[in-house]
Protein 1
Amino acid sequence: MTRLLKPLPLLLLAFAVFYLLPMGLHGLWIPDETRYAQISQEMLQSGNWVAPHFMGVRYFEKPAAGYWLIALGQAVFGENLFGVRVASALTTGLSVVLAYLIARRLWNDPRKSFACALLYMSFGLVAGQAGYSNLDPQFTFWVNLSLVALWFALDSRTPRSRLGAWAVLGVACGMGFMTKGFLAWLLPVLIAVPYILWQRRLGELLRYGPLAIVVAAILCVPWALAIHLQEPDYWRFFFWHEHIRRFSADNAQHARAWWFFLPIMVVACLPWAALLPATLIKTWKDKAQPAIVFLALWLLLPLAFFSMSRGKLPTYIMPCLLPLALLMGHALIDLIQQGKARAILINGLVNAVIGLAAMVALIYLQISNPMYGNSHAEMFSLSLAFIVLLAWILANLLQALRPLTLWAMPALGIGLLVALLPAGMPEMITDTEMPDQFVLEHLDELQQTHALISNELGSASALSWRLGRTEVAFYDTEGELRYGLKYADSVHRKVDLDSVQTWLAQARQQGSVGVLMRVRSTSEHREEGQLPPGGKRYRKGALLLIIYPQLP
């Protein structure tokens, strides 16, 4: 089958159908998508490709390269939903290609190459992030490329191919560093050093490693010097806040328990999670093989490192998923070749039960506390949600019924889920979490306003991106702009509760004012209560838009 259908083009076609095509069919999720859309748009508009700015305010949380790729997507495809997301999709697709290529190099088995790439592409966390504008898919690709290049370097038979692989390793480390920071250098070293010491090939590392360092430096140093000259405080903030504090501080952002990533790993590899026991057993049995040792180090050492960090988010472990897919694909095809169907059958049944439980929960919630309204649009979304769940259940039941031949069916289930579920979301979620669509509905009126203000950064950045205007005032909110708003040229952008009426009165002297609010919590209701009466008011879910006319 794989020879007839040419597995790599087949995988990329499936990727295009399930992941690329639906990207323009739903609004930008807050906070990440609107943030990255606006920062990248601002680079295009300002021509400042060195120092990231978020709605005109200095934003030092990440380097610049990730924004470059998102900006490039908007430059090529337009400042639209597809243009914002295409960088994540393409880098995920390239990681799928890497999975196929390294599996072919490791085992020279077409079925294993296809299985490894398919499993990686259909891991829930990978699939969910593929159409989501974020830096994690990009960073994951550069880490994946660095470690694939490392294996090719160590496995090369000629000096030329070895030099080329080490040079590619340097490129990947350099681009990874300029995407999310020093972790891009640490992770390859974390895996390379123990593996090379185990192989007793330290001399090879000392001979060729400097090439990777030189290539990475050639890529990184020009931008590193440029941002130092433009923003001398950048490196102090970035190194201290984004690395030292996030890793070790008691008040680190997104603080979690050390075991946080263990259940996340299980969820991340759905719909293949039930194959984990068989994968671990197979890995242990083959622990003497160099390829298996390399993959195990690639999986376990970053997982241990991330678990030691106080700050944790599910996406942090995405660099661990490619080696897991390789180990799992290796184990899966061996089970099929040996005619051992039990683990695959159990995987299909577990997924079917999960889908059935989700369907029962949806029915119960809709009866007891309806999530969907009675409009035709809401009923269509509800029907679509049921169709997605039904497709998931059927796809996995097919795997359970014929595990040795229809083993790949869960990938179809996750593909349909990723493609259709956003369109099946109830309005109570989309109206609150995708404010750019609300802004789009009132774009003509907002374009006529003189000033803009918002009480939530996700909504503010949606407003800024849709209108192509950076000057949005921040009403009783700072968030990740807390540091940037301390600069003298930005402090005027802050508006507190006591001064909002004065600010509005002054702004209305010059023209109309648009106020975009997200009103859910007690504090947000208090913020709404401080606003003066009047103006044209529009509500949708938790979002409130007020257009105040110019004062006479």
Protein 2
Amino acid sequence: MRKGLLTLVLALTAVLQTAWAYDFSATSPSGHTLYYEIISGTTNVGVVRPGTGSTYDNYVTGNVVIPATVTYGGTTYNVTELRSIYDVSSGYDYGSFESCSGLTSVTIPNSVTSIGDDAFRGCIGLTSVTIPNSVDSIGHGAFWGCSSLTSVTIGNSVISIGDNAFYYCTGLTTLNFNAINCGDFSSSHHPFYCPITTINIGDSVQRIPEYFAYNLDSLTSVTIGNSVTSIGSSAFWGCSGLTSITIPNSVTSIGSSAFSGCIGLTTLNFNAINCSDFSNYSDSPFYNCPITTINIGDSVQRIPAYFAYNLESLTSVTIGNSVTSIGSFAFSGCSSLTSVTIPNSVTSIGESAFSGCNNLRDVTSLAVTPPTLGTTVFSVAGILKVPCGSLSAYRYSAWLDYFTIMEEICDNMTITVTSANESMGTVSGSGEYAFGTLATITATPNEGYRFVSWNDGNTDNPRTITVTEDATYIASFEEGVGIESRDMLSELAFYPNPTSGIITFNRNDIIKVEVLDAMGRTVEVYENAYTIDISKLAKGYYAMRITTAEGVAVRKVIRK
């Protein structure tokens, strides 16, 4: 008898949990009937699926707008979650809009803090989604199988993304990641197993999680924001399509194997001002990458220990003019390196910094006072070139232990700076310079034009160069993107102006916003955003080059 009663109770419980999965329904601003579950003890509700099983598949279609608040029984509730419901009869969770194959777009309000498990699972018609900045968690399988999804923007408050959140999103190629401090992933629990080609890491992001883009072999382009301080271990492990990477000046730590397995990575632009050392050869983030070219920016103060350890393909290194120290074993084992120029800012070179560089026979030191050397810095004897008047100092230093032939350079060098088209812009900086000194060259665009690049591909303007030989620099300019407004989209507007930082546009189809300074230089770039934040820029006048599907417009803005 008791067994029979228990069976009846369980059966009734199953019916109730399935039949009463929601508390009420209401019509959304887009005209859809949505279903809500009251979160116990609060005036908050979660959007839920009205029932379980295939009967409720595709209960909403088209463009859905979720309201921030909804009123029921005289009470106004805040919509804070997209909740999954549990079906005791099947043992499965069902997401809020799971299997709504006719859903093409969804507007998630800023009141929502959680996107639950399987929220949009199987929504094969969903083409794009922006996760608002209010959301702090994205559940397991939230966008599983959204095969029409081509881009996704992760808001800045997200701290956790569940396993397989974007699994089998076969059309997803662009990820805009703005999460300030998102938790780590792992190789076996990963949200982005997708054919992503482009990742834009926003300027608000402070850390890139461990295993962030693990094994995304379709990835070809990564832009790292200027607030990132740490790059997690194995963050880009196995990204075989990645050919170049730029590390911004804000980075202070890079985890082990961060770029290991990037078998196509040949160019590294390293701008981290004061990055911490790597502990040993196996800890190097670039270990076993086929890097041929390293450019160390002018902002960098120190080159970390084991920085480029055993990069056997490395043939070219440019060291910036602010580097004061080169860490131990920094370039050890770079057997293809044949020449290197050490700027006059360097005061010390660590132990074995260039050991194992068996083809490095041409070294130029621009420091008048010889930098101090650790033990076994170089492996082979070669030619050392030094500034005029400093030969004696080098011969009475530890440098003599490595170089039997020394050469003093006293001739002036000629730097020639020209404009590719003077009707578009002018240049300055030509002249005679002593060997090893710094020269500043500048390109100034005429009204209605902007500077593009120098003939060697460098885009810095003004640009500081170290004079080691006669050289010619040609500035190229571009028409139609200057500081003056070019009103191709007269209906495009934004507010406020002047602004203290936050700018909101009157349309949501913006593809890209490029912020230009008074010289026409690009200082900030934002992708797929209807709001941007320029609070980090100095006060003054700027231009915004705004690209939409309909065309391009340029607008002036004042940062107050």
Protein 3
Amino acid sequence: MKPFNYLSNAVRAPEIVAILVRWGFEDLLLQLDTPQFLLRNLVRAKVTHLTAYERVRNACEELGPIFVKFGQILSTRPDKLPEPLVMELKKLRSKVEPQSFERIKPVLLKELECEVEEAFAEFDPVPVAAGSLGQVYRAKLISTGEWVAVKVQRADIQKTISADLEIIGWFARQLHARVEELRPYNLPMLVREAEHRLQEELNFRNEADNAEIFRALNTEQERVFAPKVYGALTTRRLLVTEWVPGHAPDEISLPQEAASELARLGGQSVFHQIVGTGFFHSDPHSGNMLITADKRICFLDWGQAGQITLEMRYHLADLFAAITDRNAEKVIRVAERMAVNNRRIDRRRVEKEVTLLLNKHRDFGPSGTKMGTVGLEMLYIFGINGIEVSADYALLSKAILCVEETARTLDPHFDIQSVARPYLEKLNKERWSAGSIARQTVYPMLSMLRRMQQIPENMQRILQRIEEEDIQINFHHTGTENLESTFNASMNRLTVGIIIGSLLIGSSLIITTGVTPLLWGFPAIGILGFLVSGLLGLYIVVSTLRKHR
């Protein structure tokens, strides 16, 4: 990321500073190297009735679509950010003014590589939806007569993103360096990760691939589906899918029975994605789902998708069971298996924090805490205590929370546990089935036995080559050039040591006899023996030190 340049951002920088001041972040800006001319004549808004996290969300919405998209991406990292901030960022929705068709049309023509009339029999220039990265239009294919949704990337979006990311990166580095209480969050790293995710979403082929993967793995096409992708017309900046008429879950009025059934169907689909296939829509909020006239659910916008391995699904099942049982010690054991690092942790501290969380959220039923919320808070506890887990766990926690919220707009009595339990029980049953155990134990053992069976054959082949004098074994010793001298020196030291020991024993015996002549009241021969042994000991010490110098 390039260093921040006020001159190249002479227009955008003052706008951003003014908005931040308006939402009460003047004190924070004063801690940074923000030029005083940018802060001149700015009046701080009275927003004391809002929390700091609410002010962050409001500032992002006013700062524009790139900041909104950036905040949405950051909301998928509950392991790195406080849960209240994650919950606020999750509320961000792109409310952007659509670009005129005159501005969008050059992008459309470049990606189509032909005139609009050559590809579409009809094309409505008024967008049906406008997001931070693209706009969606309704059109009819000239080849088949099918109605399609045409998503076109906004004009000059890459340039806008580059400018805003430059400013975001500068703020992140400044905050990391100057505000100590924010340093544990490692904002520069989070910005780099979010930038990578944003660049992935800018490639509409990724969204098309994700939708097609879901369609291939989905076994409930009759009830739940994703729009069909027209791959021949799809490019990095253009996505063409089938047109799906319908209404968002929070915009439709249904009889209670039908609403409850759809809520359960949506929850079942998400858990089938997570637990059954490991590939899931990571943001199934109401704006990304449609309910059709025949009561089917369509998942839209596959720009964000998560993927977890079979082992990760086992960990999820164990964690779910530990949380449900309110077993803090088991939660920690599962977390350590989930971790991608090997850092030592303060188990007592983690257990206290997990226990407090489980005691705070005792009711996971329809009227209690959302399971997704508990998951997000749990991941944050893991993160601040050095238990680093895969980002896909954060995505699935967000997915569970989103489907809980969406389902409860249809059915206030929706119970996520009753929906999840059958899928987790089925996973555990498969996990401990004879076939699974065989795959994990018997098959590796059989593979090892096959290798052992090959040992005699391999040995016979080696012996045959030796008999035919077709093989040579060369030994090369290193570090043995001075072996003889080293051995002699060691033997000399051993001999001197024996002599010293003998002198000490003999002198000690003589000292006690009182034999003449005497020196200082003791036998002179005994004193002489001690003196000689001392000199010999000193010689050994000096020679050893010289050897290792």
Protein 4
Amino acid sequence: MNLFTESNLSPDLLKAIGELGYEQPTEIQKQTIPFILSDTRDLIALAATGTGKTAAFSLPILDMIDDASRKIQLLVLCPTRELCLQITKDIKNYTKYLPNLKTTAVYGGSSITDQIRSLREKPQIIVGTPGRVIDLIGRKALDFSEIHWLVLDEADEMLSMGFKDDLETILNETPSEKQTLLFSATMSKEVERITKNYLTNPHRISVGSINEVKKNIKHEYYVVGYRQKKEALKRLLDANPNQYSIIFCRTRMETQEVADFLMQNAYAADALHGDLSQAQRDTVMKKFRLKNIDILVATDVAARGLDVNSLTHVIHYSLPDDPEVFVHRSGRTGRAGKDGISMSLIKPEESRKLKQIKLSTKIEIVEKKIPTGEEIIKAQVGGVFEKLFTEHEDLFTFDDSLIPDLSAFSKEELVHQLLQLQLRDLALFYKDKQDLADQKLSNDRDDRGSRRDRDRDRGRGRDRDRGDRSERRSDRDGGRERGGKPKRRNENMTRFFFNLGKRDNLKKMDMLEIINKATAKSKKRADIGDIEILEKFSFFEVEKSFKDEVLKGLQTQKFKGKDMRAEVAN
């Protein structure tokens, strides 16, 4: 099968996908579409995200679905609201010329009453997240008795997000006589168990491998000290103009911190993480898809379900522990036949972790040097001309007579002056900056020994506040005590990042009371170490054995009506 026209799909479907620009099926579509059209066996399809899975399973089912029936015939389960909405949008586009087919999306974070109301229109197709589907089953708003097809999309993601019990409950609510189609990027143990328990003699389709997916992605890494990380990130962004990128961070706090740093430095960036409300998440996603912002700083969990085909760069601000996560992150660029670039910022002591990623994935990751100021200016000049040569859209009209007489300038002089105006601020910024490649990298011992100092740097980078006099003095002293000795971290203590600070009227006595309440159920009283109350957040130390109690106990408390959140400080 070389073209969609050879797939035996109905003319109405072919007309719709033709208008969407579908001509050549992807590999997963070539194998999956004819199978579903001709076989009733269950299916396990292994393929990476972004390979066209939605069309692969939905087009043949849409071709066979009974549009005269008002019963639910197709249920698609997916891990996130964002993916749910994307799949729903795609199916509605495919059914443009099939007006009797109705699709409804059901997901958390939106009015369940409105979704129940939409279900009264008797859709044949439901696309939903497991949690909301369970809720609607409990309210008797969903009837799966006539389901012919059940699709588990991104099954590995759903299981890794803790939906195992929900999936099993939903599967038990569906008739045994149905075709189950499981799509996954990986075949984890949990996915394997689901297939054994709920799929009958499944046919298997596997498209490509981790390494094949990465052929059009160039992988680079940059070794930088902790204190250099943000400046290094800024230089990489400046050296790659006209980019459209996702920056991946390890924690929610780090994500917000990096996003704040970029926004404070006039980049069109925003954060996406679990502390945002659903409305805030939707706003950020919309801005990113519309390219109102061109840099998204995100955690791995928050970025799940985000399907954007035109990303030019993926930047690993923090390396993941799992090589598969590295592959999944990087695979978000280089889609739709385009080339992509994956960049990793690593600390000197992370070389072993990077080596493990290389060995596990067989990906060639090339070491590069952080660009110099001169290299950045050259790249920026190239970026100006790239836009000039590729973007010819007339966005507005003006009277040509407003253009002054430029005959005194040669073509080269005019371009020179325009570039001076365009790049003036950037050139002045880097004019007297020492190149990072010339700066001595902190070693592993230095990094550990200055942990507290690093955390204060985080506070300055995120908040831009000055703090009180003692904090400023401590920072100037390079994290040293009054006697000049380096501050030592107590190895018996766990250091926590806490989301409230001075602006929340938090004081040390409050922090002590909060910790004691969190560990109150223990027979032994927890030892409490250093407590630092900063402007927007705080740090505190608690005896190591109480780590889990602290994390759990804080979740049940509020401080002056505000939710509290802590996580182990890196």
